[in-house]
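Below is how a single chain appears once it has passed through the pipeline. First comes the sequence as given, then the structure the pipeline wrote out for it. We keep one example in the README because the format questions we get most often are answered faster by looking than by reading.
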Amino acid sequence: MNHFECVVPILNVRDCQASLDYYVGKLGFSRKWGWGEPTVFACVTRGKVEIFLCQGAQGHAGTWMSIFVDDVDALHEEYKMRDVIIRLAPTNMPWATREMNVEDLDGHRLRFGSDATGPADEEGLERFSQMEQSSA
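Resulting structure:
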């Protein structure tokens, strides 16, 4: 049986350069490569995570993904200083993670999570459920 190595999401973006600027300047990713002049397809990376950005072709608006990190609260502090679009501050979920929800320029959602720090926050879970319903 084949061993799967990784998965790389492909996000459809309106403006690849603007998305690159947001992922690098705000979300702390690094530009790994770009294709085209001007760039219409690119890869950003942070740690073991890679994301492809595709201008006007592959993927669909409003994609959600989960990215697991060591400390979501520390990432939240970093993102507050960088004026990232934070839709949900770190919240303890009933599935034993502490999650933060971030949005990019094209409405894609990044769910950053680490281990829960306590019992589930029912108010935060309600806000999370409302976000899911409004994006459907």
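Helices lie at 16-25, 72-81, 122-135.

See the next section for the split statistics.
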